[in-house]
Amino acid sequence: IEIHKIVYKTKTVDGKETHASGAVLFPRLDQSLPLVSYQHGTLTEESSAPSNVTTFGLNESGVMAIFAANGMIVSMPDYLGYGASSDLPHPYEHGKSLATASHDMLKAVEEFLEVEKIKKNDKLYLMGYSEGGYATLALQKQMEASGDNRITLSLPGAGAYNKTAFTKAIINLDTPLNFIASYLWVLHTYNQIYSSLQR
Fold it and tell me: Cα 91 to the chain's mean position, in Å?
């Protein structure tokens, strides 16, 4: 398979234009291939962003490499805060910015495929796990709202989809919270983005 880093234009949380990046993986085959947009889970290290991965193992990039080796084109956005936009804070679990970065990456990959003369068919799969599960549903919602109804199948997994119910469930637990840093990261992000919360 071939792996390429894509740098493209997208919007920040406050609507300013910026550059973001991601990786596209595909085999060179003389046939039309389906396209998969894979939204990655929570990352705590810049080196784990899809466009920075140099080796494949038992991780999300490794699984997506297997998809590509089996005849699929895989788009993997880094999101804001990683790769080309690592100077920005990552808006963790912020649906709109995750969707926008993923959707703009998908458009950039399609332009790249035209230039490279890689044929794709009309099948489009959306997939993601953990933060990527939430990002996948946010992407699906944004695409459908914009009239882009070409999604063949959406496979979101293990995302915190209902933020209010999820937060209430966490707060009411009477056990050690192994992922407290992630929960606090969400609260910190939302407090920055939604300044009207005044928390």
Answer: 12
Interval 27-60: pLDDT, tens: 999 999 999 999 999 999 999 999 999 888 889 9
Query: Are 26 and 2 spatial neighbours (Cβ–Cβ below 8 Å)?
Result: yes
CA distances from 191 to 11, 95, 197 (A): 19, 14, 6
- Residue 86's contacts (CB-CB under 8 Å, 6 or more residues apart) are 46, 49
Contacts of 159 (CB under 8 A, 6+ apart): 128, 129, 130, 131, 132, 133, 134, 135, 136, 137
Integer Cα distance of 88 and 18 in angstroms? 10
Task: Write out pLDDT tens, residues 95-128.
Answer: 999 999 999 999 999 999 999 999 999 999 999 9
Q: What is the pTM of this model?
A: 0.96
The residue length of the chain stands at 199
Start-end of H helices in 3-130: 60-69, 95-116
